[in-house]
Design goal:
alpha+beta; 216 residues; 8 strands; four-stranded antiparallel beta sheet; elongated
Length: 216
C-alpha cells in the first residue's frame, strides 16, 4: 500500500510537471511591393441612334488603346472583358447605351502607377469612365516569403514565452504544439482602394502564430 501510494503520488507529480506550459502568440510583418497590377476600365456611350452609340464606343476604345500605347504598354497588356447594350424609352424617344470593359494586366508596377495618375487624360479624350474603373495591385509571391515569416513569428513567440518564464521562475522548453494563423495582405498605409480612392502597390504582409511551449 505504501509503495502503491508512492508510485501514485510520483505519477501525479510527473503528470503535473508535464502539464506545465505556456501558450503565446508570435507576430511577423513585412512590407512588400505589389508585383501585379490590374485595371478594369468601364466606359459607355449613349445616343438615340444605336449606330451612333456603337460608333462612339469604338472611338472610345481606340482612344483608350492609344492612351496605353503612348505610355509604352504592349498591345497584349489590354484585353476586352465584356460589352452590353441597353435602352430606355422616355416620351416616345429611345436612348441606347453601349457599355464596354477593357482590362489592363501588367507586372510593370511603375508604368501602371503612371497610367492611373493620368487617367483623366482619358476623360479629356472624351471617354466616359463609369463607376468601377480603378487600378488594383496584388502581391503574388507570398509562398516565397512564407517560411521566413513563420520562423520569425515563432521566434517572436519564444521571446514572449521566455519573458513569461523569467517572471515565473521557469525556463522555456520545447514546442508542444503550434498553430499557424492566416496570412493577410493589406495596404501598408491603410488605404485599400475603392471607388474614389486609389489602391496602393505598397502592401504589408502579416501572420500570427499560436505556440504552446513546455516550461521546465
Amino acid at each position: 500500500m505504501v509503495l502503491g501510494g508512492y508510485l501514485l503520488g510520483d505519477g501525479l507529480l510527473r503528470a503535473k510537471e508535464a502539464e506545465r506550459s505556456v501558450t503565446v502568440r508570435g507576430l511577423a510583418e513585412r512590407d512588400v511591393t505589389a508585383d501585379l497590377a490590374t485595371w478594369t476600365i468601364s466606359y459607355s456611350a449613349s445616343s438615340t441612334s444605336l449606330a451612333q452609340a456603337q460608333a462612339k464606343a469604338r472611338s472610345d476604345t481606340d482612344a483608350i488603346e492609344a492612351f496605353f500605347a503612348d505610355l509604352g504598354f504592349p498591345e497584349d497588356a489590354l484585353q476586352p472583358t465584356g460589352a452590353n447594350v441597353s435602352s430606355y424609352t422616355n416620351d416616345g424617344i429611345t436612348t441606347y447605351t453601349v457599355r464596354q470593359r477593357l482590362a489592363l494586366r501588367t507586372e510593370d508596377i511603375e508604368r501602371a502607377q503612371k497610367a492611373v495618375a493620368r487617367q483623366f487624360d482619358l476623360v479629356g479624350r472624351g471617354v466616359f469612365l463609369e463607376e468601377g474603373s480603378g487600378m488594383s495591385y496584388a502581391f503574388t509571391k507570398l509562398n516565397d516569403i512564407k517560411p521566413e515569416m513563420v520562423a520569425e513569428a515563432t521566434r517572436d513567440a519564444r521571446a514572449a514565452a521566455q519573458q513569461f518564464a523569467q517572471d515565473s521562475g521557469a525556463k522555456v522548453g520545447a514546442i508542444k504544439d503550434a498553430t499557424q494563423g492566416y496570412f493577410s495582405i493589406e495596404a501598408r498605409d491603410g488605404n485599400s482602394g475603392g471607388w474614389g480612392q486609389s489602391d496602393s502597390p505598397y502592401k504589408k504582409v502579416r501572420v500570427v502564430t499560436t505556440v504552446n511551449f513546455s516550461l521546465d
